[in-house]
Amino acid sequence: MRGLVLILGLALAAQPAAAQVADLRSTTQFRVCADPANAPMSVRDGSGFENKLAEAFGRWLGLPVTYTWFPSGMGFIAKTLRAGECDVVMGYAQGDELVQNTNHYYTSVFGIVTRKNSELADVDRLSDPALKGHPIGVVAGSPPATIMAQAGLAKDMRGADLFVDRRVKDPVGDLIRGVKDGTLDAAVLWGPLAGPRVKNDPDLQFTPLLKETAGPKMFYRITMGVRLPEQEWKRELNSLIRRHQDDINAILREAGVPLVDDYGKELIQ
Fold first, then answer.
1. Long-range Cβ contacts of 182-185 (<8 Å, 24+ apart)
2. DSSP H helices in the chain
3. Longest dimension (CA), the chain
4. Model pLDDT for residues 222-257, shown as the tens digit of each residue
């Protein structure tokens, strides 16, 4: 009985705090938490594709879009969403325990950036022997880096750290520039970061890794993140995602983001 009373007491004591957190959401603005220099996703000048998606959600909600800018990485969620400074994080991978995920609004895939006239231009899997002996850029600790190591490409890998202040460093851009100038023969990168950057480049191409069967998966579902107690807010965003999926896909395709089905098996045109 004492244990039951204690549990009930803790539950009741938690209720006001939960209500207080839920009340943090603005009803007069669509308040977005974002990195100011995470091109091509979010950029302070509004040119990122996640900025354009945020503007679309703002229109559908009938609310003006405002931003709380903070560099992504350690402390991002604590200093923005959990601090009540903003109400939604765009472009958040499904399954993270720091936030409550909405339904996913797109699924994308890792792929290989190569020069169109390269001998590696036809490579579409990391187990291809043609990759051996070629300098290949990859983000350290990313899922494809594990597969590359398993495929015997460790000595060919040229790593870059993604968790940097992107206001002063551009690791993905550096890898892509390396492919373009010949310093690297390929770069294995997350589609939403690489696809828009090479979309209109006459010399480069992005090939999705749709045929990988070993190691970590190459495709991931992308959601929005909201605070853990805010069920009603999540349901409202889920409804907008469901009703406007075609519009969302159009914005992403226009940006050059490679979209795949929910099982990572085929590209969505």
1. 182/115, 183/135, 184/135, 184/136, 184/137, 184/158, 185/114, 185/118, 185/120, 185/134, 185/135, 185/136
2. 2-22, 49-61, 76-79, 143-150, 171-181, 191-198, 231-243, 245-255
3. 75
4. 999 999 999 999 999 999 999 999 999 999 999 999
Q: Which CATH number fits domain 107-208: 3.40.190.10, 2.30.29.150, 3.40.50.150, 3.40.50.980?
A: 3.40.190.10
pTM: 0.87
CA atoms in the 13 A half-sphere facing the CB of 246: 1
Yes or no: say if 207 and 130 are a contact pair by the CB < 8 Å rule: no
Round to whole Å and give the CA distance between 124 and 211: 7
Which residue type occupies 216? P
Domain 24-106+221-255 belongs in CATH node 3.40.630.30: no
Length of the chain: 269
**HEC letters along 95-155:** CCCCCEECCCCEEEEEEEEEECCCCCCCCCCCCCHHHCCCCEEEECCCHHHHHHHHCCCHH
Residue 185 has pLDDT above 70, yes or no: yes
How far apart (Å, rounded) are the C-alpha atoms in residues 66 and 55? 9
Could you state, in order of their start, the residue ranges of all structural domains in the chain?
Answer: 24-106+221-255, 107-208
Paired residues of 207 in beta bridges: 112
* Helices 245-255/49-61 angle, 10° precision: 160
- Evaluate whether 199 touches 148 at the Cβ level (below 8 Å): no
